[in-house]
Specification:
By secondary structure, this protein is mostly helical. About 60% of the residues lie in helices and about 0% in strands. The chain is built from eight helices and no strands. Helix 3 packs parallel to helix 5, helix 4 packs across helix 7 and helix 5 packs parallel to helix 7.
Length: about 230
């Protein structure tokens, strides 16, 4: 039992390493930008511009201001941790495929502007975990995605062009990347637990106590008068 607990603790701590490193990196970028007085926005992604293609590598690391960074930090950390905890064997692949695929598609499909921020990755991870949870019938994955959607309340509307300064194209390409990868890796991830709970419930409903069961007196619990009134502990 202790070995199982130690293994679980080790897996949880191990799955926190990458989220801490990546979130720490985007915070470090903003700190350097603030201290130096520089503006790294020029490293953002500019669609259909050869020079702007470098943004595919850099744009998720750059944020317009501290509020932009803070808004992205919590959902990004939670979803990245959930990915690395639940999909240990493919987590790194999924993360960087979302990172680069949605950036590449955005370079082709986005409007002419500097696109920056990690929110496209958030949409990709949230979609991947949610759709994978549906496919694999795992309630834990669904719960994580719904929690992030609650914390990051604008997720649904973020894929529509309702705010001029928001890169809804980046959100949409991130969502599509997560959707495609969820189906591509449909055979990977934690097993179903929804059906398991249902089976347990059905077994509990079907089980009946045989009140006519005769217990030999020498083996019977009720044989001790001092214990008869102590069945509820």
């Amino acid at each position: 039992m202790l070995d199982l607990q130690e293994n679980e603790k080790s897996e949880i701590l191990g799955s926190l390493r990458f989220p801490i490193l990546f979130v720490g990196l985007i915070w470090l970028v903003k700190i350097i930008e603030t201290i130096s007085g520089a503006d790294f926005g020029y490293l953002g992604l500019v669609p259909m511009d050869i020079k702007g293609a470098r943004g595919i590598l850099f744009f998720p690391l750059i944020h317009a201001n501290w509020q932009h960074l803070i808004n992205n930090t919590i959902p990004l950390f939670i979803l990245t941790w959930a990915l690395f905890y639940s999909y240990r064997t493919i987590a790194l692949k999924v993360f960087f495929l979302i990172y680069f695929c949605h950036g590449f598609w955005l370079w082709f499909l986005g409007r002419e502007a500097y696109h920056i921020g990690a929110s496209g990755i958030i949409y990709g991870l949230g979609t991947f975990i949610f759709v994978s949870g549906v496919i694999r019938k795992n309630s834990n994955l669904l719960a994580v995605s719904l929690l992030v959607a609650f914390l990051y309340g604008s997720m649904v509307w973020g894929i529509f062009p309702y705010e001029e300064y928001i890169s809804w194209e980046g959100h949409l390409t991130g969502l599509v990347a997560g959707l495609v990868l969820a189906f591509y890796y449909k055979n990977y991830g934690p097993p179903s637990n929804i059906g398991h709970w249902k089976d347990i419930q059905e077994n509990e409903d079907d089980s009946e106590i045989d009140t006519n069961l005769e217990i030999p007196e020498e083996e019977g619990y009720w044989n001790d008068p001092e214990l008869k009134d102590k069945e509820e502990i």
